[in-house]
Specification:
413 residues; five-stranded mixed sheet; four-stranded antiparallel sheet; binds zinc ion
């Protein structure tokens, strides 16, 4: 099986390299803005949609950039990839904007990047490699790493350098051959993602609860005081810059804790369970409600993304019940459907058979059964199961066709 994988390392640049890194990121940003302005100008100049002069792809843009460069000698200080790859990013952004508009999705038009507001990053191709304690990058030379890098398995395609708070990272994108996975023999598990507990996992016999290290909630007071301090500082002052850095560091730390937790959980599940049955929750819809903070904190979308590719890596299966499958409303005892269940009902009380069960546990049992049913019926299984993401973009789910019932309560809340 051929897969794409990224290896990310922290850089330990010296002062000269640090300057060059910032310069490269700045050039990439400048190129993006220049390219975007150029393309917008063309769209305005040639309003007729069939006019070919209206469009200008990354290759053409780079040719024009080479002419523009002559007036801006500082562009020569950094790798030519900084501009080239920025134009490729722009191509992708515009393409997905047009494709999204066609499909009726809401994809925004590319925006101009601002220093200090946008993410600092640039991509390098060509002679990129990593050996021991050093990353070797074009025009930047060899840069020391914070830790010794393991030997990368596979062929390096490109390297992306980015800054998070005051730390710089390099991420090598690698295409690698993985041995065909042997399917794990563990049970089929139903996983209900919740707010009180991050995940409730039922394997047919027992239910276990996994709590997230709620980094955002725990660090919320600190976040509040940091952002308050940040907003009080005078714009453009040194103190503002200091406060910005403090805030960014706190946010980065929060993200690290969350990702560590998610990686450990999803790897464990995908390596040991035959199939994972999850719900296709409309995370974006939920994020707009008051629960937003908790939802985003809990990292459901990260969980979904990771399970998608890890089940493929480790030979497990991912079964997604679509968001209209009433996992919370069904009684796991008798199959009765409770219509008037509200979000505040933490305990499920069945009016038909009298069962009293924790709400999340009930949902995880239902999901587990749903998964078993899908596996038992190969005709639905073929459409339901998402064994490989080869045919689709990774991280996307194929939805299972279940009977459409009313919109889930969680979304209405
Ligand atoms: Zn019942």
């Amino acid at each position: 099986m051929i897969t794409n994988q990224a290896y990310r390392f922290e850089l330990a640049p010296n002062l000269a390299t640090l300057t060059l890194l910032a310069k490269s990121a700045g050039t990439a940003r400048y190129a993006w803005n220049w390219g975007l302005a150029h393309r917008i100008a063309l769209l305005k100049q040639y309003p007729d949609h069939t006019d070919k002069r209206r469009y200008c792809n990354a290759i053409e843009l780079h040719k024009r950039w080479n002419v523009h460069k002559i007036e801006k000698p500082w562009i020569y200080d950094v790798s030519k990839c900084c501009g080239q790859e920025a134009f490729r990013n722009l191509d992708v952004a515009l393409k997905s904007f047009y494709a999204g508009r066609k499909a009726g999705r809401r994809v925004g038009f590319p925006k101009f990047k601002r220093k200090g507001k946008s993410r600092d990053s640039f991509r390098l191709t060509g002679a990129v490699r990593v050996s021991g304690r050093y990353a070797v990058l074009p025009r930047l030379g060899s840069i020391r790493l914070k830790e010794k890098a393991p030997k990368l398995k596979g062929r390096i395609l490109e390297a992306t350098v980015s800054r998070v708070a005051d730390r710089w990272f390099v991420s090598f994108s690698v295409v690698r051959e993985r041995p065909e996975p042997v399917a794990p023999t563990g049970p089929v598990v139903g996983i209900d993602l919740g707010i009180k507990h991050f995940a409730t996992i039922h394997d047919g016999e027992t239910t276990r609860v996994v709590d997230a290290p709620k980094p955002l909630v725990a660090g919320l007071r600190k976040l509040r005081s940091l952002s308050k301090a940040h907003s009080r500082k005078k714009r453009g002052s040194k103190n503002k810059a200091k406060a910005t850095l403090k805030l960014a560091r706190h946010q980065a730390r929060t993200a690290n804790i969350r990702n560590d937790f998610l990686h450990k959980l999803t790897t464990d599940l995908a390596k040991t369970k035959q199939a994972l049955v999850v719900e296709d929750l409309c995370v974006r819809g939920l994020a707009r409600t008051r629960l937003a903070k908790h939802v985003l904190d809990a990292g459901w979308s990260g969980f979904r993304r990771m399970t998608a590719y890890k089940t493929e890596w480790f030979g497990s299966r991912l079964i997604v019940a679509d968001r209209f499958f009433p996992s919370s409303k069904l009684c796991s005892g008798c199959g009765n459907k409770k219509v008037d269940l509200t979000l505040s009902d933490r305990t499920y009380e069945c009016c038909a058979c009298g069962l009293m069960i924790d709400r999340d546990e009930n949902a995880s049992i239902n999901l587990q059964r749903f998964g078993l049913a899908v596996l038992a019926n190969p005709t639905t299984a073929s459409s339901a199961e998402r064994k490989a993401c080869g045919s689709e973009r990774s991280g996307r789910y194929r939805k299972v066709a279940t009977k459409r019932t009313e919109v889930k309560q969680e979304e209405a809340a």
